[in-house]
Design brief:
Elements: H1 3-16, H2 22-38, H3 41-44, E1 60-63, E2 72-76, H4 81-90, E3 100-103, H5 108-112, H6 114-117, H7 119-127, H8 132-151, H9 157-165, E4 169-171, H10 174-191, H11 196-204, H12 207-213, E5 220-223, E6 232-236, H13 248-253, E7 256-261, H14 266-274, E8 278-281, H15 284-299, E9 306-309
Parallel strand pairs: 2-3, 2-9, 3-4, 6-7, 7-8
Antiparallel strand pairs: 1-4, 5-8
Helix pairs in contact: 1-10, 1-15, 4-9, 7-8, 10-15, 12-15
Length: 318
């Protein structure tokens, strides 16, 4: 499979599992096309043209020819200088030849644009009953915070190493997070956990979460007790990074009783406790691994691939 096709397929799967209406996503793409067409020619060279077909700014080919044939892939949750150098060393032996590095967490231009993906959270919050204007205004404050934080980072540090070593590299972030969010929503709707302990049991029996229990990473209740009723469940696992810490009262008002997320800061948990919302941290790395595996399962329906596991990634086929 060519790298370009692999990339396009990952975006397609991300859209398929996006909780937003498909016409809303198409409108976003149309808006980008309109922006591009209105730009003067001298500014077009700086426009990220992937935005014309890819609504996820944190998912990009970071290095390499899109026409590269991809068969053997090294995948990790974080692929930084150490992992890139290891890939180079593995490639010194022909039988270990790796065609592509995939990082789940964004690097390079995808990291620089991470904040743009967070707008997705406003639409999902509205889908769960939060007033759209409230969700947008609260998220706007948080998006601005993240954008300012990203300004100081050396975004291209790791991707420049891949470029100098001549190794194709890409990152797949929100499309994979969309997959795990969609999967868990459907699973909870099917299983209908009654109490938090029932919800924990469902998580613990998913292969990715089960494997990571061996590494002492367990799904955990951080607010509420195991006998609390789940009520309406909100799976909070997509949209770039943590949202507004001021949103929990709005979630409670909209009827949400339980949040299931990858991770929350201490300040977020503090605000959730004030709002009396149950919170379960499913686990950051196992959730990322589950999302990637679900995405790769879809891609492998077209062509079988070989995966090298590193940096927290475990290939499990569902």
């Amino acid at each position: 499979m060519k790298l370009k096709k692999f990339y396009e397929k990952a975006v397609e799967i991300g859209i398929k599992n996006d909780l937003r209406p498909k016409e809303e996503i198409q409108k976003l793409l149309n808006d980008e096309k309109s922006k591009f067409e209105k730009l003067p020619n001298e500014e077009r060279e700086f426009f990220d043209r992937d935005r014309l077909f890819n609504p996820y700014a944190d998912t990009r080919i970071l290095n390499g020819d899109p026409e590269t044939e991809v068969r053997r892939i090294i995948v990790g949750i974080d692929m930084e200088i150490g992992e890139i150098l290891l890939t180079y060393l593995l490639n010194q032996r022909e039988e270990n030849k790796i065609d592509l590095i995939i990082s789940h967490h964004p690097e390079g231009t995808a990291l620089a644009q991470l904040y743009q993906v967070m707008k997705l959270q406003s639409d999902i919050l509205a889908r769960f009953g939060v007033t759209l204007s409230v969700a947008e205004q609260l998220m706007e404050k948080r998006i601005n915070e993240v954008e300012r934080r990203l300004l100081s980072l050396n975004h291209i540090r790791h991707t420049e190493v891949a470029r100098l070593l001549g190794i194709p590299m890409m990152c797949i972030h929100t499309p994979a997070d969309n997959c795990v969010t969609s999967y868990l929503n459907k699973l909870f709707e099917k299983e209908k956990p009654y109490r938090l302990k029932d919800l924990l049991e469902i998580l613990k029996n998913i292969p990715e979460y089960r494997i990571f229990q061996k590494y002492q990473i367990f799904p955990k209740i951080v607010n509420g007790s195991e006998n609390n009723k789940c009520g309406k469940i909100y799976v909070d696992m997509t949209g770039g990074t943590e949202g507004s810490k001021e949103i929990f009262d709005q979630l409670a008002t909209s009827g949400i009783s339980t949040l299931v997320g990858m991770h929350y800061s201490e300040e977020h948990i503090k605000q959730a406790k004030k709002a009396n919302v149950n919170v379960i941290i499913a686990g950051h790395i196992p959730s990322d691994v589950l999302g990637l595996n679900l995405l790769f399962d879809e891609i492998e329906k077209e062509e079988s691939l070989e995966f090298v596991e590193i940096s927290g990634f475990k290939r499990i086929r569902h």
